[in-house]
Specification:
The protein has about 450 residues and is α/β, with parallel strands linked by helices. The protein folds into four domains: about 140 residues, 3-Layer(aba) Sandwich (Alpha-D-Glucose-1,6-Bisphosphate, Chain A, domain 3); about 90 residues, Alpha-D-Glucose-1,6-Bisphosphate, Chain A, domain 3 (3-Layer(aba) Sandwich); about 100 residues, Alpha-D-Glucose-1,6-Bisphosphate, subunit A, domain 3 (Alpha-D-Glucose-1,6-Bisphosphate, Chain A, domain 3), CATH 3.40.120; about 80 residues, TATA-Binding Protein (2-Layer Sandwich). The protein contains 14 helices and 22 strands. The strands form four sheets. Strands 1, 2, 3, 4, 5, 6 and 7 form a seven-stranded mixed sheet that branches. Belongs to the phosphohexose mutase family. Its cofactor is Mg(2+). Pfam families: PGM_PMM_I, PGM_PMM_II, PGM_PMM_III, PGM_PMM_IV. This is Phosphomannomutase/phosphoglucomutase.
């Protein structure tokens, strides 16, 4: 039996093309997806990577061979695919490797209504079938082959998002948008087109080789061009989308990054104003400020693991109105509990445009602590290094540990989380404290152990 353990991750498929997977394997995944979900119709979309159209079409053929009708929406952002899944009531598959380098590609799968497919919700079964069929070939079926048709949902996606946020009375704003040669270049012109915005575009040309910078705004070096441009043109804010445009990062008028935790808190406050007393989900590496703001606004904060399938599951279980991750994934009950950076961006535009002050002043009340940002270390023995870190801090007074996701170490005035990446051979470190000096001290202490 073939081993897909390096390809099938906790909540998606992701690997190098063609070394780890190719179109014949994509066809098998399509057949397995339909078999596991029992779907008689599905919807697919793909990003701008050179390998995406072929992989997506092969998947469609595999699905159709099992009798499922396939609606292809073509070039799309990941949240546009979730919109199609939600609005059409169909399971979906999005071909993207998000922020990974150009040689990667992947599949984010969902059931109808954008419900997640992760290891515990079907992905393990899809992997098992795919491994078997790699060896035996696809089994014969009596099913009549399904159809493959095309449908453009971009305008409907834009209209739906704009129906969820009142932007009618905002003041004119100048916004620089860095699409990173990713799918933001496809969606932003349609979504923003009718708003009172002076949009300054950066890298809107769809190019999955990423000629200007990686489409990963979580890495500060990929924000530099946007920061410079915001200052050059005197913009009110900047927005940076990742490769599949499901995440959005915000830059203030000074060219300074706004913490995704601060954006989570801002949007949470706005959603709680519409839905008093609601639950808000936050992952365990968001700032302490998030649960504080949720409680201050009458809501109930719920802490969960990192990762979209875990957040979506928790939102479905609790009926939460909103969820945020420090990686700038933002989830909305009004969007089938799925993540959409575009809707978060619209909330920021509405909040900023609804008052006269600058963005830096608007978000200051939501940004209360000093943070390290995510620091990655390439480590061979991830569990061993994590255990060593725990041992190094175990004797300190008033320390608590939890293992909800990796290792979270908490003291009265600081916390840090150390966890293994689900998609890369890395340990990820996030630190927060009441002052920058404590963050720097902790950073040096923890990294000395990790990298020993």
């Amino acid at each position: 039996m073939a081993d897909l353990s390096q390809l099938v991750k906790a909540y998606d498929v992701r690997g190098v093309v063609p070394d780890q997977w190719d179109e014949p394997l994509a066809e098998i995944f399509g057949a397995a997806f339909v078999t596991v979900t029992g779907a008689d119709a599905i919807v697919t979309g793909y990003d701008m990577r050179p390998s995406s159209p072929g992989l997506s079409r092969a998947f469609a053929h595999g699905a159709a061979s099992r009798g499922a009708d396939v609606t292809e929406i073509g070039l799309a952002s990941t949240d546009e695919l979730y919109f199609a899944s939600g609005s059409l009531g169909l399971p979906g598959a999005m071909f993207t490797a998000s922020h990974n380098p150009a040689q990667y590609n992947g599949i984010k799968m969902c059931r109808k209504g954008a419900a997640p497919v992760g290891q515990d919700t079907g992905l393990a079964e899809i992997r098992a079938l795919a491994e078997r069929w790699i060896e035996t070939g696809l089994p014969a079926t009596d099913a009549t082959p399904g159809t493959i048709t095309q449908r453009d949902v971009l305008a409907d996606y834009a209209s739906y998002l704009l129906s969820l946020v009142d932007l009618t009375a905002i003041r004119p704003l100048k916004v620089v948008v860095d699409a990173g040669n990713g799918m933001g270049g496809h969606t932003v012109p349609t979504v923003f087109g009718g708003l009172p915005l002076d949009v300054v575009p950066l890298y809107f040309e769809l190019d999955g080789t990423f000629p200007n910078h990686e489409a990963n705004p979580l890495d500060p070096k990929n924000l530099v061009d946007l920061q410079v441009r915001v200052r050059e043109v005197g913009a009110d804010l900047g927005l940076a989308f990742d490769g599949d445009a499901d995440r959005c990062f915000v830059i203030d008028e000074r060219g300074e990054p706004v913490s995704p935790s601060a954006i989570t808190a801002l949007v949470a406050a706005r959603e709680l104003a519409k839905h008093p007393g609601a639950t808000v989900i936050h992952n365990l590496i968001t700032s302490w400020s998030v649960p504080e703001v949720v409680k201050e606004n009458g809501g109930t904060p719920v802490r969960t693991r990192v990762g979209h399938s875990f957040i979506k599951q928790e939102m479905a279980t609790t009926g939460a109105v909103f969820g945020g991750e420090h990686s700038a994934h933002y989830y909305f009950r009004d969007f089938w509990n799925a993540d959409t950076g575009m809707l978060a961006a619209l909330h920021v535009l509405a909040a900023l445009g609804g008052q006269d002050g600058p963005l830096s002043a608007l978000v200051s009340s939501y940004d209360r602590y000093a943070a390290s940002g995510e620091i990655n270390s390439t480590v061979a023995d991830q569990s061993g290094r994590t255990a060593a870190v725990k041992e190094a801090f175990a004797s300190l007074p008033d320390i608590t540990f939890d293992t909800l996701d990796g290792l979270t170490t908490t003291a009265p005035d600081w916390w840090f989380n150390l966890r293994a990446s689900n998609t890369e051979p890395l340990l990820r470190l996030n630190i927060e404290a009441r002052d920058p000096a404590t963050v720097a001290r902790l950073r040096d202490q923890v990294l000395a152990v990790i990298r020993a």
